[in-house]
Design brief:
The protein is mainly alpha-helical. The chain has a single domain, classed as Four Helix Bundle (Hemerythrin (Met), subunit A) (Up-down Bundle). Strands 1-2 form a two-stranded antiparallel sheet. The longest helix is centred in the middle third of the chain and has 23 residues. The chain is globular and about 45 Å long. 34% of the residues are buried.
């Protein structure tokens, strides 16, 4: 029987890859809704996140052991190829037998691999919206990924702004659609 979390993870990676393939040569320096990043920096961030997964999940290494192994430019001359390799390895690591039942050691301490996969799936979904907005692509996200991401983000949404990594949550109009609610939780205007 297929694992729903792995299906969502694969879907999120695929959607980000689609949008990445739509980046035109002159769009790499374009601004994104993440004000500190242009398109290349955003893609570098999401690709770098994928690079952490195999050593943390498959090898049982820690963030401290890896240090700054994935700092700086991880895209090289071919961002699409870098993404393809990183995302395939990340998904394979999570999909390995028993991988989601492991514990990983992250910067904030031990965490279930299943929770780590959920967190990175939601992060990839939101950054797909960021990338879509930056390049003028269709920014509608699949309903299933949006609902998954809301459930993932909701329990800790209030703490995200305090972390300095996200803007403060926005008040969204009553009756707003799920995507608008998700984006509002993360300080983005849909």
């Amino acid at each position: 029987m297929p694992e729903p979390l792995l299906e969502r993870h694969a879907e999120a990676l695929g959607l980000f890859g689609e949008r990445l393939r739509a980046v035109a040569c002159d769009q790499w320096d374009a601004p994104t809704p993440c004000t500190e990043w242009n398109v290349r920096a955003l893609v570098n961030h999401v690709t770098g996140e994928q690079l952490w997964i195999p050593p943390l999940v498959s090898e049982g290494r820690t963030v401290q052991e890896l240090g700054d192994a994935f700092s700086g430019d991880v895209l090289g001359e071919d961002p699409v190829a870098a993404w393809d390799v990183a995302s395939a390895a990340a998904h394979a690591a999570f999909a390995a037998p028993g991988a989601l039942d492991r514990t990983v050691t992250l910067s904030y301490g031990p965490a279930p691999a299943r929770a780590y996969c959920s967190e990175l799936t939601a992060d990839c979904v939101v950054h797909t919206w960021d990338l879509s907005r930056a390049i003028g692509a269709d920014d509608r996200l699949p309903d299933g990924l949006v609902e998954f991401s809301i459930k993932e983000v909701m329990p800790y949404a209030d703490g995200l702004a305090a972390s300095g990594m996200y803007a403060a949550p926005l008040v969204v109009p009553a009756g707003a659609n799920a995507q608008t609610r998700l984006l509002g939780l993360l300080g983005r205007r849909g």
